[in-house]
DNA sequence: TAGATTGTTAATCGATTAACAATC
DNA sequence: TAGATTGTTAATCGATTAACAATC
């Protein structure tokens, strides 16, 4: 029926799970490079990246045959191949929308520039913030959003606004032609097909940790309330009121 | 061989993919609650959460049978069941280590308190930062880390230090009995079995976006350099130097 | 050649999804 | 009863992993 099912591996490209790990490998390789290491085995690199070596080799095999049997991988060459695959051999122009605490932290984050991400705009709706100097840039008014995107060739928008403002901002950047959005606002953004949204949610990460922490504390199998009755039962009412 | 393979579904508990989505459902339900909605169908809730309805129903079925056929789910009851499953019916004590731009943003983030996460400590190694008031708390010296964890019952550590300091800080919080760590430092932390680490990496998220953005720009199948030769070839040397 | 390590195969596992019987 | 919607089944898809042939 749908062409999706008939696509070959080559057509589908690199698996998403692999793409998500490539930056991790790249970081480990940079660390090795700084230490002057020229060659690394899959076992060593996997250990530095926190994965097992079979997964690492499988991941790298999607890019091509860049290792040497009996020897390992040449660090510099692998750095180049992964960088190229990820699109890091070119610069990407980023705009940060919302210059609160988090936006400021992002504006000052050194990890962006070093990976080819150039922050070319800081925008906010608050008149008290507009005009401030942050990390060597002047915060501009959100009214200028479309102009900034067009004039500076922004291709990635970072949304760090309050939840209530995020969807409107997103609609505007998408209307301006941006198809990659990194969203820090705690809302699910609606976007048309073809637009990629990645979401970073601090509260969600803590909630996932809490789930596991609770399991540890309670011990295995400990879920005495699992059979709770429907609303109206004594158990439920008592628990909700607690 | 290993008991892992013989465990039943009940023993394994709720799938990780489901656990990661429960906080998203919870947020959507809170929004509905604020709007005064009492009952919701899987179709409506799924749409608000950005997933399809089959996945939502499957996820919720892991918690129990909390819906009513022909009707839907009662919002308040589902909020309670998901909260309980995630361990949010109790408070969790959090310490933030590293009070730079990001640490400050985290300290001031309202989304923590509202979900039962209480920030009970801000610690830093920089004498210039220690003693500062941030979001109503006094930053303490990192030397006090073990005392703070023990005295205030910290069960989740948030690491927002520079990369170079993160592993040492992690070792110390783990030695103090903390088994849940949220790591913002761009390093892979080594921890013993039984310790959960979740990682938030801003640079990695941008790199994943760049990968997809590049694919769009280049169009499908456009990878002219895919056949690059090994180190030493003209193509490679030129590209690395660029 | 002997030792080491990659790249690939194949088995397994877990997640997703459509479809529909159960049931309110 | 008729209409609506859940909870579950089963098929499919994608990710992980151990094992090993290929090969440096």
Automatic annotation (TrEMBL), chains A, B:
Main location group: cytoplasm
GO MF terms held by the record: DNA binding; DNA-binding transcription factor activity
Record keywords: Cytoplasm, DNA-binding, NAD, Repressor, Transcription, Transcription regulation
Pfam family membership, one: Put_DNA-bind_N
GO cellular component assignments: cytoplasm
Domain CoA-binding residues, every copy: 87-188
GO biological process assignments: negative regulation of DNA-templated transcription; response to redox state
Binding site for NAD(+): 98-103
Subcellular location: Cytoplasm
DNA-binding region: 24-63
InterPro entries cross-referenced by the UniProt entry: CoA-bd (IPR003781), NAD(P)-bd_dom_sf (IPR036291), Rex_actinobacterial-type (IPR058236), Rex_DNA-bd_C_dom (IPR009718), Tscrpt_rep_Rex (IPR022876), WH-like_DNA-bd_sf (IPR036388), WH_DNA-bd_sf (IPR036390)
Function: Modulates transcription in response to changes in cellular NADH/NAD(+) redox state.
Subunit structure, interactors included: Homodimer.
Family in the record: Belongs to the transcriptional regulatory Rex family.
The name this protein goes by in its record: Redox-sensing transcriptional repressor Rex
Species, as recorded: Actinomadura macrotermitis
Gene: rex
């Amino acid at each position: 029926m749908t062409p999706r099912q008939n696509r070959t591996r080559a057509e589908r490209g690199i698996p998403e799970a692999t793409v998500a790990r490539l930056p991790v490998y790249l970081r480990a390789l940079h660390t090795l490079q700084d230490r002057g290491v020229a060659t690394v085995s899959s076992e060593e690199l996997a250990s530095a990246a926190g994965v097992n070596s079979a997964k690492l080799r499988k991941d790298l095999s999607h890019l091509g045959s860049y290792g040497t049997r009996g020897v390992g991988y040449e660090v510099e060459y692998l750095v180049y191949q992964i960088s190229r695959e990820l699109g890091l051999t070119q610069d990407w122009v980023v705009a940060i929308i919302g210059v609160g605490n988090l936006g400021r932290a992002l504006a000052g984050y050194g990890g962006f520039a070093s990976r080819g991400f150039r922050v070319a705009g800081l925008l906010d709706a608050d008149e008290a913030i507009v005009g401030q100097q942050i990390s060597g840039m002047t915060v501009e008014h959100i009214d200028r959003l479309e102009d900034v995107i067009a004039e500076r060739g922004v291709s990635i928008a970072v949304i760090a606004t309050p939840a209530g403002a995020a969807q409107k901002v997103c609609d505007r950047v998408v209307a301006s032609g941006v198809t990659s959005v990194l969203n820090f606002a705690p809302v699910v953004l609606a976007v048309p097909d073809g637009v990629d949204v990645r979401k970073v949610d601090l509260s969600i990460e803590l909630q996932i940790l809490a789930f596991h922490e609770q399991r540890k504390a309670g011990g295995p199998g400990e879920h005495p309330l699992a059979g709770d009755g429907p609303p109206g039962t004594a158990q439920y009412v008592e628990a909700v009121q607690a």
